[in-house]
Structure formats: structure tokens, C-alpha cells
Amino acid sequence: VSRLLEPGQVEVWLARVSELAPHERSWGSILTDDEKTAIARMTQAGDRHRAALSRYLLRTLLGHHLDDEPSQIKFMKGRHGKPSLCDKAYQGAPNFNVSHSGDIILIAIGAHDMAIGIDVEEHRYFSDAQQVANQYFEPREAVEIAALAPKTRIEAFFDCWTRKECVVKSLGIGLTQPLDEFRVSVTRAESAKLISWNNRDK
């Protein structure tokens, strides 16, 4: 029996690649030939592992929601490459989004009426984080990050980056949308939210 989500309902699933590595041989069992070919083209082993596992988990979860064989689920891509379920095959089916970085994979599955975007980034120090914020973030975001103590500045940078990624991924437009044209909350003291779009408060 299919298990479609209620309006406004969202599920978020987290997996660690390292914990599921012993089952790696099963990951490709439900992937299509095209998916396997695309993954095989990736030059880094870590990228191949994350891509294979994330698609395996996505197919498994969607198969549960749709009461369909995971290997038979059909996807399509939007104008800017965001994947979704094929409209003709799954009327009223859930929306979803996937992100992975380092050892973490996140999958968000939401009701058909939800615009879904999720992002995860492995925190790492790099000396030009503030320069990147100054160049690409909304000016008030960059100022807010610069005012923080050095030890929390990198954390705020990545928090801001992932929140902005979530916004553009939910809209299906990716980085075709300039990141400095909308503003999100920056610090963990604030809940993650979109504050303004094109200088208009939300």
C-alpha cells in the first residue's frame, strides 16, 4: 500500500556512508544502467560511494512511499537539472531532495505540495571564507559573518551557505540564482529561515 505524505509533511533521513559501507555490494542492485554509468565516470572513490548510496537509499525510500519496486521508479529532470518523480507515472507523488558531503547523506521527502531543498556541507577551514562571503553573499550576511569571533566564523559561513543552497534547491534553480540577491539567517542562534528576496522582506 502506498504511503503518501499528508499536506505539509516532510521527512528527513540521515545516513552515514561509513556505517553502510559493509553493504556496498548491494547498493547497485536497484540502480539503472544510466545511473551506474554516470557514477562510474566520477574520478574520486568517495564521490562514487556517496552517489551510489544516496541513489540506493532514495529509491528504497520512495519505493516505500509509492508501493513500487525501487528499481522501477522513474525520474525526470527540471529545466536546471533538479530531479523529481515522473509526473505522468506518479500523480500526487512526493517531492524530494538529496545532499551529501563527507560521511553524511541527507534525504528530504515531502508531500506533493511542498517545495523541498536540503543541503549538507562538511565543515573545513579555508582562509578565504570571508572573501567568498564578501563576494557572493548578500552584503548584510557578509557583515554579520565578519563580526563574529574567528572560531565561529567558519561555522557561520557554512551555515549561511547551506541555508542559501536549501532555498535555491527548493526552487529548482540552483546557482543560476545569484546568492547576493536574497538573505537568510546566518547564526545558529536563529532558526534557519529566508529573510528577504530581492531586498523584499519575507
Protein model, in words:
With 202 residues, the protein is an alpha+beta fold. Helices cover 38% and strands 18% of the residues. It contains 7 helices and 8 strands, in the order βααααββββαααβββ. The protein has helices at 17-20, 24-27, 33-40, 45-66, 129-136, 139-146, 150-171, and strands spanning 10-16, 75-77, 83-85, 95-101, 104-110, 182-184, 194-197, 200-201. The strands form 3 sheets. A 3-stranded antiparallel beta sheet has the order 1-5-4. Strand 7 (194-197) and strand 8 form a beta hairpin. The longest helix has 22 residues, at 45-66. It is globular and about 50 Å long. It starts with 9 loop residues before the first strand and ends with a strand.
Which structural class do the helices and strands define?
A: alpha+beta
Radius of gyration: 18 Å
Tell me the distance between the termini: 39 Å
Question: Helicity level, as a percent range?
Answer: 25-40%
How are helices and strands ordered from N to C? EHHHHEEEEHHHEEE
Low-confidence stretches: none
Brief characterization of the structure:
The chain is α+β, with helices and mostly antiparallel strands. It has helices at 17-20, 24-27, 33-40, 45-66, 129-136, 139-146, 150-171, and strands spanning 10-16, 75-77, 83-85, 95-101, 104-110, 182-184, 194-197, 200-201.
Outline the secondary-structure elements.
Elements: E1 10-16, H1 17-20, H2 24-27, H3 33-40, H4 45-66, E2 75-77, E3 83-85, E4 95-101, E5 104-110, H5 129-136, H6 139-146, H7 150-171, E6 182-184, E7 194-197, E8 200-201
Antiparallel strand pairs: 1-5, 2-3, 4-5, 6-7, 7-8
Helix pairs in contact: 3-4, 5-6
